[in-house]
Amino acid sequence: MPRKAPTDVTEHRITLGDFERKQLTEAVDAYQRDKWLENVPYMIISIGAIGVAGAAGVAAYALYRFFGLEGEIKQMATNAALDLATAVTGDSTVQDAAALSEADTAEQCNILYNSKIEDLEEGLRKLKTMPFPLNSSVARQKFEKEIFKYKELRRLCYLNVQYKDNTGKGVI
User: Looking at residues 44-63, what average pLDDT do you find?
Assistant: First the structure.
């Protein structure tokens, strides 16, 4: 239902003196202080959590040094990264590429890669003797691509060994 327009307007005015203004200022300040103090427990909890995390880090480092886990933790992190890389790329040669840095001689490079190359070449020879649906160009290309990857890894391993021999440190 519509309202009727007002016929007159009345203005109310409150005039504050110095005393009232002082009281109002104190009330507003107290309200603002109270709002700020409401957050103090949360700040204390946050600082405490940071302290606990720092203490846990110091304790973990002390245990790390005490038990001599330097190499093991590095190896665990490396393995986790390689597993992740294999899962993301779907390429199994990622694990074998990481073995490059472990070889110190050309013989070790041969041990790392020749057996895999020979197995893949044998698989390719068997594939070529099979009938068409199994012996497709796509299947042959997959085998040839894997063989190429491992031959490249072996070549890189040789280069890394040669660089180690010349400089005393590996590239990878």
Answer: 88
Spatial contact of 117 and 150, defined as CB atoms under 8 Å apart: yes
| Sequence-distant (≥ 6) Cβ neighbours of residue 105 within 8 angstroms | 161
Domain edges within the chain: 17-68, 91-167
Residue among 6, 80, 11 at smallest CA distance from 72: 80
* Cα–Cα distance, 124 to 147 (Å, whole number): 9
State the angle between helix axes of 106-128 and 137-167 in degrees (0 to 180), rounded to the nearest 10.
Answer: 170
pTM of the model: 0.48
Record the tokens describing residue 137, joined without a space. 């160009």
Over residues 118-132, the pLDDT tens digits come to 988 888 888 888 877
d(CA 153, CA 94): 10
